[in-house]
Amino acid sequence: MTSYITDKAYVNGKWLSTGKTFEVYNPFTGEVIGSSADCDGKVAVEAIQAATEAFKTWKELTAKDRAGILKKWAALIVEEKRALGELLTLENGKPLAQSIGEVMFAANFVEWYAEEGKRTYGITIPSPHPSKRMMTIKQPIGVAAMITPWNFPSAMITRKACAALVAGCTVVLKPSEETPYSALALANLAEKAGIPPGVFNVVTTSRENVAEVGKIMCTHPSVAAVSFTGSTATGKILLQHAASTVKKMSLELGGLAPLIVFNSADISNAVKGAMASKFRYSGQTCVCANRILVQSGIHDEFVAAIQKAMEKELVMGHGMQPEATIGPLINEAAVQKVENQVADAVKLGGKVVVGGSRSKIGKNMFEPTLITGVTTSMKCCFEETFGPIAPIIKFETEEEAIAIANDTTSGLSGYVFSGDVSQCWRVSEKIEAGIVSINEGLFSAPETPFGGYKQSGLGREGSIYGMDEFMEVKYICWGI
Ligand code: ADP
After folding, report:
1. Is residue 206 in a domain?
2. How much is the pLDDT for 460?
3. CA–CA separation, 414 vs 416, rounded Å?
4. pLDDT tens across 377-434, in order?
5. CA geometry: angle at 11 spanning 9 and 12, to 5°?
6. Residue 313 lies in domain
7. Are strands 457-458 and 410-411 parallel, antiparallel or unpaired?
8. What percent of the chain has pLDDT over 90?
């Protein structure tokens, strides 16, 4: 695993030293894991130029040939899942089982897109003119710049990069400064799999240089598409940058997912779903239940059941401890945000039923927390939490729940737990979000589209739609 820790970036098929480095920390211990190349704008331009050159030949390969290389990459990731999982736990803190799960999820994107790249069909269009024939083909858009976050340091990369690569595009990736090693490990295996120089580049950079590098990636005339996952605030900056050269943008931004439990729900299944959605990776996922709405008829029973589940199933610890299910938050700022939300809820009348404080068992640890009596004026209801707080809002009617669920500028995902089929349909159609999960807490799969309504983003990742972000549709008209 330590062989993947490198202070070099990966540009044009070469491992590049930049002279300057920044440090990467283990979020549980606070110890330095290693240093990482601090690339500046010059290196970003070099990577874009390499990707531009490589695009000329990569786009000419058949989809079958590209698939062959990607399948080797997928196989290598699977072979290395333990080492990659340990690396992921080291830099991001998530419990090892979840890290290995993410590595497998990352490999599944590589494999699925390798296959799906063979099916970028155009259409033939019934012509309205007797002397003309009409058709479309799809073509790769060009160099794709990608900026990824720390919460899924492997899967967010392959979900974006493989859609682009199989379409025939080349990639310049900037991973999060918190988790550069998982990205570099993927580059290492991409190289071994035979991905040619310049096709997949990884430019690591410190927080100090990120604004400069990010701006270049979003304004350079040779970049055709930008794909970003991260905070809504950063997404808006990048969208503005990209306007000057009209790049195709896909943005996966923040969420504020409602999880609604109706009176008719199977309570134990609703608790299972809420636990999985809320506490996976300590609540640091953009689709995790941010607001848990529970109908009055089952409110007390649900609260008692989730309290019991939290006390039994959630074990805080270092991600390498086999029993740990709750690891650290990513950094001190994240802990402060969660602490602030709990204090705000308590000030406004919320009741802490479980947890509520920092834990001293490690750095950046916050206790899994259950708060009841939550109202929509509390920060935990209108500010994305990104931490292990489960706030319970009691509601009376379906209309009220839908109104609360939609009272936000975010619209990434939502969850409905109900035993009434008609209600499931009605509510899932009314929730303003790109993803609705019914009677189920975990929904992600490479085969399905991921993306948001409203300010949660633009475009879709994964699924047959994911490649559209990296392809142009060309209409060809034939006179006969
Ligand atoms: P978080 O606060 O959760 O880290 P960010 O949106 O700040 O969310 O980070 C997500 C990704 O965006 C990371 O790779 C980060 O380095 C990058 N990033 C942050 N600010 C900028 C910026 N101004 N330009 C380009 N990328 C940025």
Report:
1. yes
2. 98
3. 7
4. 999 999 999 999 999 999 999 999 999 999 999 999 999 999 999 999 999 999 999 9
5. 155
6. 258-445
7. unpaired
8. 99
- Is pTM, for the whole model, over 0.90? yes
The span from the CA of 177 to the CA of 208, in Å, is: 10
Residue 455: Cβ within 10 Å count? 18
> In terms of Cα–Cα distance, which of 254, 287, 252 is closest to 410?
254
Ligand 1 midpoint to CA 230 (Å): 6
Catalytic residues: 252, 286
Q: Are residues 247 and 301 in the same domain?
A: no
| Tally of CB atoms within 10 A around 333 | 9
User: Of the residues 210, 239, 241, 336, which should be mutated to test ligand 1's pocket, given the most ligand atoms within 8 Å of the CB?
Assistant: 210
Per-residue pLDDT tens over the stretch 162-191? 999 999 999 999 999 999 999 999 999 999
- Report the residue among 40, 92, 147 best suited for mutation to probe ligand 1: largest number of ligand atoms under 8 A from its CB: 147
Give the whole-angstrom CA distance, residue 395 versus residue 427: 15
3-state secondary structure of 198: coil
Counted domains in the chain: 2
Provide the pLDDT confidence category of residue 1 given band limits of 50, 70 and 90: confident
Question: What's the length of the chain?
Answer: 480
Ligand 1 atom, smallest distance to 217 CA: 25
- 232 and 355, same domain (yes or no): no
Q: Residue 271 sits in a domain of what CATH number?
A: 3.40.309.10
Question: Is 450 inside a domain boundary?
Answer: no
Cβ atoms within 10 A of the Cβ of 2, count?
12
Kindly state whether residue 22 falls inside one of the protein's structural domains. yes
3-state SS assignment for residue 200: strand
**Residue 451 forms part of a structural domain:** no
Residues 226, 263, single domain; the answer is: no
> Which one-letter DSSP state was computed for residue 375?
-
Q: Which of 227, 140, 210 is nearest to 457 (CA)?
A: 227
